[in-house]
Amino acid sequence: xxxxxxxxxxxxxxxxxxxxxxxxxxxxxxxxxxxxxxxxxxxxxxxxxxxxxxxxxxxxxxxxxxxxxxxxxxxxxxxxxxxxxxxxxxxxxxxxxxxxxxxxxxxxxxxxxxxxxxxxxxxxxxxxxxxxxxxxxxxxxxxxxxxxxxxxxxxxxxxxxxxxxxxxxxxxxxxxxxxxxxxxxxxxxxxxxxxxxxxxxxxxxxxxxxxxxxxxxxxxxxxxxxxxxxxxxxxxxxxxxxxxxxxxxxxxxxxxxxxxxxxxxxxxxxxxxxxxxxxxxxxxxxxxxxxxxxxxxxxxxxxxxxxxxxxxxxxxxxxxxxxxxxxxxxxxxxxxxxxxxxxxxxxxxxxxxxxxxxxxxxxxxxxxxxxxxxxxxxxxx
Length: 381
Hints:
Layout: E1 3-10, H1 14-24, E2 34-42, H2 46-55, E3 61-63, H3 66-70, E4 77-80, H4 87-96, E5 100-103, H5 111-123, E6 129-131, H6 139-150, E7 156-165, H7 181-184, H8 189-203, E8 210-216, E9 221-223, E10 229-231, E11 237-244, E12 251-258, E13 266-274, E14 277-282, E15 288-293, E16 302-305, H9 324-339, H10 352-371, E17 375-376
Helix pairs in contact: 1-9, 4-5, 5-10, 8-10
C-alpha cells in the first residue's frame, strides 16, 4: 500500500506551486512507495495562499506564520522555498518541530548559515533532510551519470557543468531579491545556480581541491519598478575552474553559473571528456544525449534519441518528450521513495553533505574571483 506523506509548504511562490502540480498528478507515476498530500501552506502573500486554497483541495491550514504550520500535528514533512537569507532561521525550526525537510538551495545564504543548518540536522537524526535540485533527473543527464559510473573513460581530460539562462539579460528588468546581497547573499549567481551545477560532479566524487573564478557584473544598476534606479549588487555570471585530483595528475572541473547568457532560456548541461570515452547532455536538446568511444581511430559522437525514459516509471509512452515538470516530479519521487525506506532508484536528491561541500566550493570561488587568485577549498569534516 502506498504511504501518504502529509506536507506543509512554506513559501508558496513559483516552486511551491510546481510542487503542488507534481503532487496533483502523482497518478502519472506507476511505481512509488509513497505519495505527497499537501495539507498546510504558509506565505505572507495572501494571493499565493489563495491559489493553493482554490486549486489544492487537501489544504486544511492556511497561515502567514510558519510556526503555526510547524505546530500542526497533521504535517509530516515540509517543503521550504523561501529566500536564501531565511534558510538558517526556518530550516532548523522545521527540524526542531520534528518534521522531515526538502529545502531549496543553496541551503543557507553562506557557509556560516549552512553550518547552523548542518548542526540542526545532526541534532535531529530522526528527520530526513534533502536539498532540491531537479535538472539532473532529465533522462539524458541520467544517461551520462550511468555512463560515467559503468564505463571505462580512461583518464578524465575535463568536466564541464553549466547552468545558463538569460533571465537578467534585459537591463530594464526590475530588480528582485535574487539581485540583493542581503537577501540572496554575496555568492550572487553562484548561490542561485551553484547547487544545480555541482549536484552531478559531487555525486560522482569530483571534489575540487582548489578553484579560481571569473566573476562578472555587467549590470551594476537596475530599475526598482517604481521609477527609480537602484544598485544591483550581486554577480551576474561566474565561471569557476576547479582542480580535481586523481591518479593521473588531476583534471579541470569547469562550472558555469550565468544569469546573463545570450541565446539561452534555461540551459543545464554536463560534459565529461575522457581519453577513451566521453559523454554529454544539454537541456537545449532534451531528447538526446551524446557519447563517444575512442580507440585510436575516428572520433565520432554518437547521438541517441531517448524519448521518455525516467528513473521512476510513468504512464507516458517512451516515444514522447520529457520536460521540466517531469524532472521536478522525478526529484520529488526520489525524495519520497528514500523517505519511505527506498534507495531513490539509485539516484537520491542532494544530501546535506553535498550541500555543505558546495558551500565550501562557492566560498573559495567567491574569494578567488574577488582576489583574482587560486583558493584552496576547505571542506567541513
